[in-house]
Amino acid sequence: MKISKAEMNDFRIRRKKILKHLGSSSLLILIASSEKERNNGINYSYRQNSNFHYLTGFNEPLSAVVFFKSEVHFFCRKKNKEYEQWNGKLIGPSMAKTIFEFNYAYDISKLEDKVKIFIRSANKVYLDYSDNDNFKYINNFIVRNLTGGKNRSLECIYDANLLISQYRQIKSSNEIKIIKKSCEIASLAHIAAMKKCKPGINEFDLENEICYTFGNYNARYNSYPPIVASGKNACILHYTSNNDIIKNNTIILIDAGCEYKMYASDITRSFPANGKFTSFQKDIYSLVLRAQSEALKKMKIGNFISEFHNTAVKVICDGLRDLKIIKKSSDEILEKKLYLKYYMHGTGHFLGLDVHDVGMYTINDKPIRLKKGMVITLEPGIYMNQKNIGIRIEDDILIDNNGPVVLTKDVPKSISKIEEICS
User: How far apart are alpha carbons 346 and 392 in whole angstroms?
Assistant: First the structure.
């Protein structure tokens, strides 16, 4: 297994930060994702726990990492010829130590014995609450083995996800490079789907085109199940059936992203099935595009993270009034939240190793400020069930010194360019 110099440097920096935070008396234990059965002895393709990958880069199940007293102790399966004959090579503790630069590496069978020793001098234990199966196992083990003459189980166990997420929230230059590549591949897939679309084909035909393009550029996996929704289906926010016939004069909403080197992209585009927007479709599309454009101006270092959402909502409220879709004043639409009938979700989320990446949006009930290195989606939309039209426009935005950088700009979103590609 090859690890680039940039990736290894990231792992070193992350581990150093975690060890510094832990100090001399705190213990951090992470367990790799377990394999998940799909049906009757057949597993899903393996995907490593994001926190585990963030600190190790190791991609095998049945492994664990322990941070304690300025050292990283790693545990994985030892080499096994019979297993490898059926399932492929195992890295093994010796090679894992060399490749990934751990201080120590052991067979996974040694995990409990080693942790029992570490616990004796640990005042705090950090476990990953976000991985329910592994948390239950390791939490039960920790509680059984806490020592010191009193039951410290509730007082000394902390959430490792909260600790790690504060570092994952700010992307390194190498992470940004990988996310950009993921966005580039996803952009090509969206353009390919636009070109393929025509009335009479199935939504699934467009999903196939998207996944085929991902694979062509070494992005084997989707970062989430693709949404290919035509007509009324686009008003279902998490529609993934993707099995309807595309009708003439409808809008297609495609929300799809790929996973490249574990990092996600997340793009939504809405376009006419027959290559030409109707007058009403243009009005709604233009309103959503205007909301996104105005919100983008607020995605600057130092601004509150809530500002771009509030801006998008205000633009949509004004537009719903101007188009007489809601016959109230803009202020009343906003104050009474009448817009929620047509726009019922947030305007963005963090993006990274997970499509809905970790990170705090508020601290003590107050919105955080945007910082350099954050990557956030920007995705206003309008959904009108009675008109069978749903439109969302979503881009991935890097917060940078010179203002927001649209990482998914290669996918057109102007009406003229969309109509040109679709026709």
Answer: 12
Question: Residue 218 in contact with residue 247, Cβ under 8 Å?
Answer: no
> What gap in Å lies between CA 114 and CA 298, rounded to an integer?
50
How far, in Å, CA of 238 to CA of 395, rounded?
Answer: 17
Q: For 65-95, what is each residue's pLDDT tens digit?
A: 999 999 999 999 999 999 999 999 999 999 9
List CB contacts of 279: < 8 A, sequence separation 6 or more: none
Residue 384 CA: distances (Å) to CA of 198, 316, 323, 389? 22, 13, 13, 5
Sheet of strand 227-230, all strands in order from the earlier edge strand to the far edge: 227-230, 251-256, 267-272
**pLDDT band for position 55 (50/70/90)?**
very high
Give Cα 146 distance to the centre of its chain: 35
Q: Comparing C-alpha atoms, which of 394, 361, 359 is closest to residue 377?
A: 394
291 φ, ψ to 5°?
-60, -40
Alpha carbon distances (Å) from 71 to 101, 118, 124, 273: 11, 12, 16, 57
The residue type found at 200 is G
For 325-357, write each residue's pLDDT tens digit. Answer: 999 999 999 999 999 999 999 999 999 999 999
Q: What's the CA angle centered on 87, arms 85 and 92, to 5 degrees?
A: 85
Q: At 288, list the tokens.
A: 């959503």
CA nearest neighbour of 30 among 157, 134, 146: 134
Decide: residue 365, CB within 10 A, 0-12 exposed, 13-18 middle, 19+ buried.
exposed
Record the pTM: 0.95
Closest CA relative to residue 10, chosen from 397, 318, 373, 422: 373
Q: Are strands 221-222 and 251-256 parallel, antiparallel or unpaired?
A: unpaired
CA gap 15, 5 in Å, rounded? 15
Higher pLDDT, 147 or 100: 100
In this structure, what are the phi and psi dihedrals at residue 340, rounded to the nearest 5 degrees? -60, -20
C-alpha 205/C-alpha 226 separation (Å) is 12
pLDDT (0 to 100) of residue 141: 76
